[in-house]
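User: Okay, second chain of the day. Same drill as before: sequence in, structure tokens out.
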Amino acid sequence: MSGYMIIEKWNLLDAAYMTAITLATVGFMEVHELSPIGRIFTIILIFSGVGYFVYIAGLVIQSIVEGEIQSILGRKRLDKQISNMKNHYIICGYGRIGRVLCQLIKEETNDIVVIEENNELMAVLEKDKMHYLHGNASDEDILEKANIKNASFLVAALGTDAANVFLVLTARQLNPDIYILARASNPDVRNKLLIAGANLVESPYDTGAISMGLKLLRPSVSSFLDIALSRKSEAIQIEELFVPKSSQYTHIALKDSKIRQDFNLIIIAIKKASGEMLFNPHFETLIEPRDTVIVMGKTVDLRKFSKAINPEGA
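Assistant: Same drill. Structure tokens below.
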């Protein structure tokens, strides 16, 4: 623009108009007759202007293509990670319940695969750095991509009871041994989910109501349980630990185990292999193979005891 003002002695408006029609290559006639030097300047302006716009367009296209390539490579890398997982959790549905559940499980392990159909939640999954698959959780192909045959747990937390029933049926057929926890909004659907193959059925409304009632009727007990189960406090935790056959504590009475003395832990209960639950077990109770010991204490002490009771699984 300033070139026309200097070379041709044009005013600002004429110079700006001439520069605009030249760069836009619209082919309008010149504002005024150009001198030879002005024509040379116009040629230079055309080539430099077109080159500039081509360069900008190239950057935009490159950015788009690189973004697509990164997206494809990222998806392939994610699929490979999922295919290599074993004993992982599959969470079907990333709504309010599914997301909170994933955050809780992530405190123990990152081996979680989320299946979600809602496009709007894809960005949330990316933000939360979750392994995820986009699609219908009841689809056999999607469940197989989630590596369901090598998974240990599946949570059916879809939006409707009908969808959860169909999901449980499909998942049980694909992996007869997987542990399935299903959500039921309607109490009448509970039996249907159990018949379909769910190991446990929970109603978020019932659970929420019980929790609220406990806070009203037993506020101190509720506060204690919140602290013990929240995993946000280093002061006290409640943990369950499986006793393998190879454990040094098998066939040993509680009084001789020295768990209290060595680890400063309290044995709350022992779940026997048969399913029987022994609350506040007697000091002469034997710890037997395949028992599950429920203990309470500090996080550091719980970790030490976990390694001691099951060194191979630590």
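The chain has a mean pLDDT of 84.

User: Thanks, on to the next one.
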